[in-house]
Amino acid sequence: MLDQRLFHEADRQLTICNACRYCEGLCPVFPALERRNSFLEGDILYLANLCHDCRACMPACPYTDPHEFAIDIPTVMAEVRRETYISYAFPRIFGEAFMRRSRTVGIFTLVSVVLAIVLVWAGRPGDLFTAEIGPGAFYRVVPWLFMLIPATVATAYAFLVMSLGLLRFWRDTDGPLRSRFNPLALLSATGDVFGLRQMRGGGPGCSYPDEAPSHSRVLMHQLVFYGFLATFASTTVAAGYQEILGILPPYDLLSLPVVLGTLGGVAQVIGCVGLLQMKVKGADQPATHVLRSLDVAFLMLLLLANVTGLILLVARETPYMGVLLAIHLGVLAGLFVTFPYSKFVHLVYRYAALVRNRQEERQEAALAG
């Protein structure tokens, strides 16, 4: 999977770090690599995805450039993660298309938006800018099945592709799949995901984009993560309103689906803008450059999905609702179809690495006890 140059460079740097061990308390990567005397490709893939790119190791490391060892763990780990995302994509040609050339994401989303507008216009010729209000207003513009079927297919496809990637990652980094199903390790790793503990640089905070430790990156990630969960909860509650209670959208501003969706949308907008600013501020750092286009493409698309959704909420009783709905649905199509070929997949592989790390910690504690 990894080309020989990248494998040997990662092996060289990790071997030096394993001998030094100065950064042992900064993040779980260093205790994890200390459990190994040498590094196979699977070990490097695992450690790279366990890395949360907090970069706390860089200010602490005595062997960074201009030292002859030229240690730069964040950059080499970022390069390995990029190869992970591309190599485990299915089919791989899509991973190459979307992850190496992020402009493909923009082109695909633009085509989706134009197609959505054309379909809405074709269904309402000469009547595109007529205001629709009251229960079922959205469905008079776009029929319910026209929303449900494409969304279901896109979600199922994304889930299938990411599941295949996850299974291959497990196989290549840890052998038999049954070794993964440790309930306590799964529970601990889930807590790591929700708390973003490994992004705190050993306590003081993340050293990205500045060398001075800060918790701002953790906060921005939490806004995006919990905002996404809130919008997902909003969609789930709205489905319950419609299918169980028989109440059709659009819903009142103070209804639970709208409140959850609004809070989640605003949180994601703030988080995406904050993370994009960090990408700009840290653009001269090699580790940022490796995944910058992939990061920016995903953050921009997620930001656009939430902005169009919030605008649609504000203008849903105006003559522009039909066009805004088409634009929003087109952006969502671009977002969901490209999920398995975007930075979103980092959650899949990072969670698997966290599970393995927790399992190794438990095995180590058992041996020590």
Could you tell me how far the N terminus lies from the C terminus, measured between alpha carbons in angstroms?
Answer: 37 Å
Number of helices: 15
Overall structural class, as computed from helix and strand content, comes to mainly alpha
Count of β-strands: 0
Give helix % range. Answer: 55-70%
Describe the structure in brief.
By secondary structure, the protein is mainly α.
What does this structure look like?
With 369 residues, this protein is mainly alpha-helical. 69% of the residues lie in helices and 0% in strands. The protein contains 15 helices and no strands. α10 packs across α15 (346-368) and α11 (216-243) packs antiparallel against α12. The protein is elongated. The model has no long low-confidence stretch (mean pLDDT 91).
Q: Which key terms come to mind for this protein?
A:
369 residues, mainly alpha, 2 domains, 69% helix
Topology overview:
Layout: H1 4-20, H2 29-34, H3 41-50, H4 57-60, H5 73-87, H6 92-100, H7 103-123, H8 137-141, H9 144-174, H10 183-195, H11 216-243, H12 256-281, H13 286-314, H14 321-337, H15 346-368
Helix pairs in contact: 1-5, 3-5, 3-9, 3-15, 5-6, 5-13, 7-14, 9-14, 9-15, 10-15, 11-12, 12-13, 13-14
